[in-house]
Automatic annotation (TrEMBL):
Binding site for L-glutamine: S49, G231, G233, F260, Q263, N301, G303, F304
Catalytic activity line of the entry: L-glutamine + H2O = L-glutamate + NH4(+); hydrogencarbonate + L-glutamine + 2 ATP + H2O = carbamoyl phosphate + L-glutamate + 2 ADP + phosphate + 2 H(+)
Assembly, per entry: Composed of two chains; the small (or glutamine) chain promotes the hydrolysis of glutamine to ammonia, which is used by the large (or ammonia) chain to synthesize carbamoyl phosphate. Tetramer of heterodimers (alpha,beta)4.
Highest taxon above the source species: Bacteria
EC number: 6.3.5.5
Classification via HAMAP family: CPSase_S_chain
Protein name: Carbamoyl phosphate synthase small chain
Organism: Homoserinimonas aerilata
Every Carbamoyl-phosphate synthase small subunit N-terminal domain range: 5-135
Name of the encoding gene: carA
Lineage summary: Bacteria, Bacillati, Actinomycetota, Actinomycetes, Micrococcales
Length: 386
């Protein structure tokens, strides 16, 4: 096996980590974040929520099971860069159709291997997420000051609206499985394939819509409910999606949002959002359901959070009645879910659809289905009408 070319990871604070090129060579920039999952690297790479980010994998061995056609969450890799310690030299899985390094190379993803990812993670955990760059090939030979200047001149995540780069350009339909109970309009802000499968499995015809859709176009579908997906970027840069959601809530349509959708529900209800120093990423975040006291181990990828009172119900500043924080992160008390008490709307900050697991929160899709059925019963509508 040929020895890979030199590469270097440069953090915004000047920290440098020298290793070997992994995947494509060249230079790439993004917000450096660490993901703590022991499994699911293919789902992570193809999750549109990671657009704009350089992902550091804390698990030391990556690539053992190769890649396949079933585990992707979208048609392409979205991360800006990929950082691993020990890439597997062989693929050992009967489902594999190729190797991870070949996949990275084919999709022109610049990565780096052979560095101490524990040290990178500790640096990010101490100082917070920051901009970074990976330089390999000819770019690895650039002067240290030139590399650092390039990192510091790259875009920051705050203020970025990335929905347009990850959303579908055309609407499409995923038909309901089994008994149809209605339809759901999904605003694609970076939706994952597993989300659509779970909604379809609950009896919904799933209308996946571009992030540019207007309220008039959405309501013309006569949906039984509306869903906002996960996605990358700063919720403060998505005022248009907030205004769309406020129109949906005034219409009385049931709403469910996850991750970015939770942040946008928070803003639609009149609360603020803020950037977390470290963010939550990986598949081992403990979250408590305040109504039941049940602790769920959940999958996360978010760098922003909702600023809402956690000590009891509060009045929506935007006039949508009472709202309570339904879930809280046990590590840092960050808001992990919202539930409107006077309108049919709720959301969670984490990923209940996580295909790589854990599946503790998958019941939320059942809760959404039940909410839609209750709304149909109270309004006298039927699945045939919607």
């Amino acid at each position: 096996m040929a020895i890979a070319e030199p590469a270097v990871l440069v953090l915004e604070d000047g920290s440098r980590f020298t290793g070997r090129a992994y995947g494509a060579t060249g230079r790439t920039f993004g917000e450096a974040v660490f993901a703590t999952g022991m499994t699911g690297y293919q789902e992570t790479l193809t999750d549109p929520s990671y657009a704009g980010q350089i992902v550091v994998m804390t698990a030391p061995h990556i690539g053992n099971t190769g890649v396949n056609r079933e585990d992707v969450e979208s048609p392409r890799i979205w991360v800006n860069g990929f950082v691993v310690r020990d890439p597997s030299r062989v693929v050992s899985n009967h489902r594999a159709t190729g190797s991870l390094d070949d996949n990275l190379l084919a999709e022109k993803i610049v990565g780096i291997s052979g560095i101490d990812t524990r040290a990178v993670t500790r640096r990010l955990r101490d100082a917070g997420v920051m901009r970074a760059g990976i330089f390999s090939g000819a770019d690895a030979a650039l002067g240290e000051e030139e590399q650092l200047a390039a990192v510091r001149s790259s875009a920051e995540m705050s203020g970025q609206n990335l929905s347009g780069s990850v959303s579908t350009s055309e609407p499409y339909l995923v038909e309901a499985e089994g008994e149809r109970i209605g339809s759901v309009a999904v605003l694609d802000l970076g939706v994952k394939a597993s989300t659509l499968r779970y909604l379809s499995a609950r009896g919904f015809d799933v209308h996946v819509l571009p992030q540019t859709v207007s309220f008039e176009e959405l309501i013309a579908l006569q949906p039984s409910a509306v869903f906002y997906s996960n996605g990358p970027g700063d919720p403060e840069a998505s005022d248009r999606h907030v205004e769309l959601l406020q129109a949906v809530l005034r219409e009385g349509l049931p709403f469910f949002g996850i991750c970015f959708g939770n942040q946008l529900l928070g803003r639609a209800l009149g609360y603020g959002t803020y950037k977390l120093a470290f963010g939550h990423r990986g598949i081992n975040q403990p979250v408590v359901d305040k109504a039941t006291g049940r602790v769920e181990i959940t999958a996360h990828n978010h760098g922003f959070a909702v600023d809402a009172p956690t000590d009891g119900p509060s009045e929506s500043p935007a006039g949508f009645g009472r709202v309570e924080v339904s879930h809280v992160n046990l590590n840092d008390n960050v808001v992990e879910g919202l539930r409107a008490l006077d309108i049919p709307a709720f959301s969670v900050q984490y990923h209940p659809e996580a295909a790589a697991g854990p599946h503790d929160a998958n019941y939320l899709f059942d809760r959404f289905r039940d909410m839609v059925l209750e709304n149909q019963a109270s309004t006298g509508s039927t699945s045939e009408e919607k």
